[in-house]
Amino acid sequence: MQQTNCRKIGLYGGTFDPVHSGHLSIAQQILVEYGLDELIFIPASRPPHKSQPFASFDHRVAMLEKALPLNSKFSISLVEAERTAPSYTIHTLHQLRSRLASDELFLIIGADSFCELHLWYRYKDLLSIVDLVVAARPSFSLSRFFEAIANLPGHYEYDEKQRVWREYGGRRIYYFAGSEELASSTEIRQKLSSGQLVRDLLPSSVFEYIRQHGLYIDPPLVNFRPDR
Description:
An eight-stranded mixed sheet has the order 3-2-1-4-5-8-7-6. The N and C termini lie far apart (42 Å). The protein is of the alpha/beta class and 228 residues long. It has eight helices and eight strands; from the N terminus they run E-H-E-H-E-H-E-H-H-E-H-E-E-E-H-H. Helix 2 (57-67) packs antiparallel against helix 8 (204-213). The protein has helices at 21-33, 57-67, 89-99, 111-114, 123-127, 142-150, 185-193, 204-213, and strands at 8-14, 38-43, 74-76, 104-110, 131-135, 156-159, 164-167, 172-176. A hairpin with a 4-residue loop joins strand 7 (164-167) and strand 8 (172-176).
């Protein structure tokens, strides 16, 4: 009987506007904690539930390319730029599932986003495609996480040995408590716009890229298309 080569793939979506040291720390910790074979960063092109990113898609991809360490387990997917309409997570997941048909997929989301999962477009379908890794946020109450679990369709039970919530249909939700970020992209943009130093919050390569291209100041350089 032919065996399939099933890999464990983490999917880390976001605007990454800009990508910062907190993003990279979370990615590295989760990669190790769950024994992932690959972790894919997925920059949002036109997020439907947020205001449009400050930096262009090309700038944000370029910063990700600068930021990622020389580690074969990290990669970038441009799948969301393939669609002209606003990109819903369920559409992205369907595309990636078709390309990674034999792989086990783990969608990484923040705890605050998880508590609003019921507001996501076709969130029930999303739960049937991937397992979730819910990353803690500063000052996040664990009771909110328990409440969000209870409000999901289906019935989840906690497996203490594996530290995972399992649904009768086979889906799993992991809570990763060691991922609190020191700063957000919003805070970093505000600091940059007011001329404050943020070298300790950004990879040096990303800081130099921002400085070189004058990002997050008024006016931004929105028409730059880097060679990749």
